[in-house]
Please model this.
Amino acid sequence: MARNESLHKASVAKQDEFYTQIADIERELVHYEEHFRDKVIFCNCDDPAYSNFWRYFQLKFYQLGLNKLVSTHFEPNAPSYKMEIVRKERGEQIGIPDYVQTPLKGNGDFRSEECIEILEEADIVVTNPPFSLFREYLAQLIEYEKKFVIIAPLNCVTYKEVFPLFKGNRIWCGYGFLGGNAYFATEPKYDYADGVYDSKTGLVKFRNVLWVTNLDIPKRHEELSLVKQYCGHEENYPKYDNYDAIEVGKLVDIPCDYDGVMGVPITFLDKYNPEQFEILDMNPHFFMLIQRGEPKPKQLTLKSIGAKDPYARILIRRKS
Ligand SMILES: C[S@@+](CC[C@H](N)C(=O)[O-])C[C@H]1O[C@@H](n2cnc3c(N)ncnc32)[C@H](O)[C@@H]1O
Model:
């Protein structure tokens, strides 16, 4: 199906049609290469005709030493197909890999029986899934105990089904995007706020996406350098009035000598090393920040995250 036609069909349903650029994929996946060797990779929201995830793995199939690459894609109202590349026997591995295209019975929905069958055989799932189905999408990966590297909406961190996975060290942030801009190819028909869509490049800008994975990566073991002190500077760390924790408004201000609980911005997840900190909670109560000098304490909610809510916090403690 032509890309525009496909875009149109999906736009009727949900605004899920954002296409990841190959440079972003390369920048992220370079950190996972050792995990891919001899593995079956499944891109289950990816039309091989134009997905850059498919393109990336196809181009690097032998370099990464993949065992198999499978891609299925979603046709809202029509049967779809799966595309595969299987490793050839030793001695035959020269040249362009062979593709095998097989029709699917259904429309390629990642939740369908036939796509779940492919999922069960896969080792690692790598894609940018539809954000409108993100909860279900992640739940399925967890249920089938799959390894994965996926792009996620930043606010998934606050979902009641997702935050416990971060807290329990079952998933964590990858390298890219968080705190910066991410650009995806899309079509102009969605309603964008000014400055979000660039008609010259066909790219839409998001600040609210991140990579999420459960593959071990070096970043996860890097220590956040703590250069600030709490002792002697208590006035810089006001206490919440209904919770025994201090407010730390910026990650650079996390003190190296405070053993209690700290409320930190959500971007902490990007620096989280489970050997250095433990995550305790998010949004457990309705917090009030005692702001010195103010007649009324300012309300501090932990409900939402992102630029609209500068006070979103997660609660952490330093490990000794
Ligand atoms: C954010 S786009 C990303 C596309 C591609 N993975 C990429 O990164 O360029 C998500 C894709 O998931 C597809 N999709 C929507 N619902 C789906 C479903 N139930 N099962 C599988 N894919 C679905 C959409 O059509 C869309 O192309």
Observations:
- The chain has two domains: 3-218, 222-318.
- The first helix runs from residue 3 to 13.
